[in-house]
Write a structure and sequence with these properties.
By secondary structure, the protein is mainly α. The chain has 23 helices and 2 strands. The protein is globular and about 75 Å long.
Length: about 575
């Protein structure tokens, strides 16, 4: 069968599975809608958490980033993995013990203020919408190529699928759907990696293949270094970024992970506090399968791409090149009219003026969207059609699973934190559930619009979401757990300061008149969330020092949260 038929078959079967699971696990109460009734097994929750956390940025974009950034791309790998460890050990068990459905619920109760709750809701919505945009772009990239339809229609199909099972099943439906999606995405990621590792270095374990020798006897990374420098790029195993920015981006991703509301809420779905730690451990294991494979996929993909297209006749290229050209995500412009593809770093002045000029090159002629590398990799390596189709299904599973979790956060922020806890405390459970579903429907429409008009590539947009989470939620949650002296005035001031500063910096340097050479201390927008977090801490602690201490009962509650009762079941706070 053709690639397209295999894609229709495998993607259709996986979507049927997701919808079937959503119908089977339909939420019948607000408890099931928000936290799956609090009765999910830790292993199952660990798998669902892994799927929720490994978004399109992890599956589609991360290996693409590493492929083009080389060593520098490790900041995404280290930041996201380290952040999950931080979340699992430092925050999740305490939040689970507190027993609230949502992060704004925790903020509102801990800081004894509807103002604090409202600020937390604004932060949650801002972060979640920024994050979900990246997922919708991932869906559009996958559909536009492999179903051979327009990118915009690809996003719309994804929106409809997410709308169906998120609105119907709530957290209960999403949890069990994400288990199925994890199985799909991990097989879709590992199988091509194993195939390509065998073909290139003769080793079926990609993690080992990354450091193995090619057929000509050279090490894979040594070959990549040579290919990169020959084309005017930095060596693959070195970084062009300053150490400070590298650190700040890694820290923003790490601390942002620990403040992401859609990941935190997953720890409310297990029966006991001890189960929160256990499910976090399982999630780390499931996540590690993909994350330890990503650098190998990046190296394989970059090597295959460069050796396949660089200085080759355009007319003699394999069919996959033309198929990806149709999406607009891969473009060739013959600037010197010789019919060959000149792919090199024309921003490297010394290289462009010397080596490139001596060869008669008139500028870089190949434009590659980072986000296509994982999806295109099996085609470049000429793997079987069913493997190529499986990768599409995996990319869609990763994007849709995270999108569903984010949409639920948006929904619960509106229906539970705004309506139930503030505007209409006497609202019935049935009316609250209806409001939650309406909120998801509205969120899906907005997410679909920005998916069609994305502000950047997937991992970049997601990195901004992590920075915003680090600058707003992380200090408020950490201080809320470990500082009895932190009060409402300090927390609210800190969250607003961090969010406004970080958001303004990103907007100014990405969409305003700001230029990279004007970055503060050389810190890029992807890393500015770390500085925003520091600002949050400084403002919060300063304001708290000059304002009244929290009420005695709040201080006792903070003390109680930290008392280890890992085996004690927690009664829901709803």
């Amino acid at each position: 069968m053709s690639i397209q038929l295999w894609t229709y078959l495998i993607v259709g079967l996986t979507f049927a599975l997701y919808i079937g699971v959503a119908i089977w696990s339909r939420a019948g109460s607000t408890s099931e809608f928000y936290v799956a009734g609090g009765g999910v097994h830790p292993v199952v929750n660990g798998m669902a958490t892994a799927a929720d956390w490994m978004s399109a940025a992890s599956f589609i974009s991360m290996a693409g980033l590493i492929a083009f950034m080389g060593y520098q791309g490790s900041q995404y790998l280290l930041g996201w993995t380290g952040g999950f460890v931080l979340l699992a050990l430092l925050l999740a068990p305490y939040l689970r013990k507190f027993g609230k459905f949502t992060v704004p619920d925790f903020i509102g109760e801990r800081y004894y203020s509807q103002t604090a709750r409202l600020v937390a809701v604004i932060c949650a919505l801002f972060i979640s919408f920024t994050y979900v945009i990246g997922q919708m772009k991932g869906v559009g990239v996958a559909f536009s190529r492999f179903l051979e339809i327009d990118y915009n229609y690809g996003v719309l199909i994804g929106v409809l699928i997410v709308f169906f099972y998120a609105v119907l099943g709530g957290m209960k439906g999403i949890t069990y759907t994400q288990v199925a999606q994890y199985v799909v995405l991990i097989f879709a990621y590992l199988i091509p990696a194993i195939f390509i590792s065998l073909l290139m270095v003769g080793n079926p374990i990609p993690q080992i293949g990354l450091g193995a020798r090619l057929e000509d006897g050279t090490f894979l990374l040594e070959k990549l270094d040579q290919l990169s420098t020959d084309l005017g790029f930095n060596a693959y195993t070195t970084s062009s970024k300053g150490t400070l920015d590298l650190f700040f981006v890694t820290a923003a991703l790490m601390l942002g992970t620990a403040g992401l509301p859609h990941v935190i809420v997953r720890f409310f779905t297990v029966p006991r506090v001890a189960d929160a730690r256990i499910s976090a451990g399982w999630a780390l294991l499931f996540i590690a399968l993909l994350y330890t494979t990503a650098p190998a996929i990046a190296a394989f993909a970059k090597t295959n791409l460069v050796t396949t297209v660089s200085e080759q006749k355009y007319e003699g290229l394999p069919a996959w090149f033309g198929r990806w050209e149709k999406t607009g995500l891969l473009q060739f412009e013959d600037k010197n009219g010789d019919g060959n593809i000149q792919y090199y770093n024309d921003k490297n002045t010394a290289f462009a003026e010397n080596i490139a000029a001596s060869k008669g090159w008139a500028g870089n002629e190949l434009t590659v969207d980072n986000d296509i590398m994982v999806l295109a990799n099996p085609e470049i390596a000429q793997l079987p059609a069913w493997v190529i189709a499986l990768v599409v299904a995996g990319g869609l599973a990763a994007a849709l699973s995270t999108a569903a979790g984010l949409l639920l956060v948006i929904s619960s922020s509106v229906s539970h934190d705004l309506l139930k806890k503030w505007l209409k405390p006497d609202i019935s459970e049935r009316a609250e559930l209806r409001a939650a579903r309406i909120a998801i429907a509205a969120a899906v429409v907005i997410a679909g619009y920005f998916g069609i008009n994305p502000p950047g590539f997937v991992a970049q947009v997601v990195a901004w979401a992590f920075g915003l989470a680090a600058a707003s939620f992380f200090p408020a949650i950490l201080l809320g757990i470990f500082s009895k002296r932190m009060n409402m005035q300090g927390a609210v001031s800190g969250m607003l300061s961090g969010l406004i500063f970080t958001g303004a910096y990103i907007i100014y340097f990405k969409y305003g008149s700001g230029k990279p050479e004007d970055y503060w201390f050389g810190i890029s927008p992807e890393g500015i969330g770390t500085l925003g977090m520091i600002l949050n801490f400084v403002v919060a602690l300063t304001v708290a020092a000059f304002t009244p201490a929290p009420p005695e009962e709040v201080q006792e509650m903070v003390e109680d949260i930290r008392v280890p009762r890992g085996a004690t079941a927690v009664v829901s706070g709803h």
